[in-house]
């Protein structure tokens, strides 16, 4: 028995199974990939015609319509007063009395706004303001 290939035959590489495996791997990756989108917090501010022209250091607290807190664009996972207090102190840094700017959505629960105001008062922050937008429509021109 002669098990050796004859010298005139060259080894052959079959590419079809390789292409099938690569195609299946590509399909698997496409199906299982989750695409993340960057989302931005959207709040609708209440309208007012007053303007604040102070250049003091500010500490921005955003509250969305569901009552979720965001301090410097970082969401607080827990809405307890202790967590809010520590986050405000951390965001204030070394500033003893920053201007606390509350960006509250027009549909924000009243309790959420009062909680920020009370926490700021307990920390000794005496400068507090609310972010608003200019009124639009015919009443804005008066």
Describe the structure.
A hairpin with a 2-residue loop joins strand 2 (69-71) and strand 3. This protein has helices spanning 16-32, 81-92, 110-123, and strands spanning 58-63, 69-71, 74-75, 99-104, 128-130. The chain is elongated and about 100 Å long. Helix 2 (81-92) crosses helix 3. It has three helices and five strands, in the order αβββαβαβ. With 142 residues, it is an alpha/beta fold. A five-stranded mixed sheet has the order 3-2-1-4-5, with helices on one face.
List keywords for this structure.
elongated; 5-stranded mixed sheet; alpha/beta; 3 helices; 142 residues
How would you concisely characterize the structure shown here?
By secondary structure, the protein is α/β, with parallel strands linked by helices. The chain has helices at residues 16-32, 81-92, 110-123; strands at residues 58-63, 69-71, 74-75, 99-104, 128-130. The longest helix has 17 residues, at 16-32.
């Amino acid at each position: 028995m002669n098990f050796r290939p004859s010298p005139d035959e060259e080894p052959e590489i079959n590419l079809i199974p390789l292409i099938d495996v690569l195609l299946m791997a590509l399909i698997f990756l496409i199906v299982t990939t989750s695409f993340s989108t960057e989302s931005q917090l959207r709040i609708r501010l209440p309208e007012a015609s007053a303007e604040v022209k102070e250049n003091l250091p500010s500490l921005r607290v955003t509250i969305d319509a569901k009552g979720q807190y965001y301090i410097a664009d970082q969401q607080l996972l827990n809405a307890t007063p202790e967590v809010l207090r520590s986050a405000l102190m951390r965001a204030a840094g070394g500033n003893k009395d920053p201007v606390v700017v509350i960006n509250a959505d027009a549909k924000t629960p009243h309790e959420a706004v009062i909680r920020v105001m009370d926490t700021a008062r307990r920390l000794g922050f005496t400068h507090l303001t609310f972010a608003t937008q200019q009124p639009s429509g015919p009443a804005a021109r008066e």
